[in-house]
Amino acid sequence: MxxxxxxxxxxxxxxxxxCPINMTIELLGDRWSLIVVRDIMFGGxxxxxxLLGSSLEGxxxxxxxxxxxxxxxxxxxxxDDDPSHRxxxxxxxxxxxxxxxxxxxxxxxxxxxxLDTTHELTVRAELLAAGGPPLWERFMAELRATHLTxxxxxxxGVLAELTAAYHQACxxxxx
Length: 175
Known about the structure:
The protein has helices at about 20-30, 35-45, 50-55, 60-75, 95-100, 100-115, 120-150, 160-175, and strands at about 75-80, 90-95. Helix 7 runs antiparallel to helix 8 (about 160-175). The protein is mostly helical. The longest helix is centred in the last third of the chain and has 30 residues, at about 120-150.
């Protein structure tokens, strides 16, 4: 599972123009691609069934399979054999996907500011925005360790902090 941290261009077809915003939107601008990356990045989900079962937005299995294949082909995810079960595969973020952390943090902050969101689903975005680039760098380093080299997620890492804040918000909102 160990991947080199390379900064080559992704293997995607040329877009309608050479504009970097257009090219990014063509790759990630559909309804589900960033949601799948989000669920792997922030949910810690690496198996198809986990991604399907945990989808708050209710992604259909055929759409999930399509997006996973698209993201693997584009070089944003790897598809690796699961060592615990020979019929399962794990999906892992590549360096290119890990570098989407600031983009997702900014999207979350923008959505929290301008859209009618729920508190428990906004708390992680607020923490990422408040932590800014230093927190994003820590999170990206953590993701590199878990997704690129196979290290276990640290119990006191950024993902653990974000998850704890989400669970606390859910518990506080349930009462």
